[in-house]
Specification:
This is DUF5518 domain-containing protein. The protein has helices at about 1-25, 30-45, 50-75, 75-85, 85-125. By secondary structure, it is mainly alpha-helical. The protein has one domain. Helix 2 runs parallel beside helix 5 and helix 3 crosses helix 4 (about 75-85). The longest helix is centred in the last third of the chain and has 39 residues, at about 85-125. The protein starts with a helix and ends with a helix.
């Protein structure tokens, strides 16, 4: 139950951060890295041990949802979908690579956060 709630919280927080960075017109690379680190750290602290795979899944999910919404709801996304073809394939391929990159960064953040919290618990003994 704790894991499922953590994944849902991670996805919702990630979508809020994604929308916030999109609203601020922050570069997607920096916004994605910052969002992945925040969500990964949060999941790592909540779940603890073996939280990397859950952080990866959560970050991957909210990035896919966010980019699909960007493509469907913005004029630039509609133009890209309208032209289609090789350009759209290259854009989708690039976005998938970036989503994997963000997910790996977030998983690393979850790993570090879970190890730091575990070390603090061990010191308290």
């Amino acid at each position: 139950m704790k894991t499922r709630n953590s994944l849902l919280i991670g996805i919702v927080i990630g979508l809020v951060l994604f929308g916030f960075f999109e609203y601020l017109e922050l570069d997607q690379t920096y916004g994605g890295i910052i969002g992945a680190l925040i969500v990964g750290t949060l999941i790592g602290k909540i779940i603890g041990k073996d939280s990397e795979k859950y952080a990866f899944f959560s970050i991957f999910t909210y990035n896919l949802i966010g980019w699909i919404l960007v493509f469907l709801l913005t004029s630039d996304g509609k133009i890209a979908l309208q032209y289609g073809g090789i350009a759209l394939s290259a854009l989708v391929g690039f976005l998938l690579i970036m989503v994997f990159f963000y997910s790996i960064i977030g998983s690393f953040g979850a790993f570090v956060a879970s190890n730091l919290s575990r070390n603090k618990e061990d010191e308290g003994l």
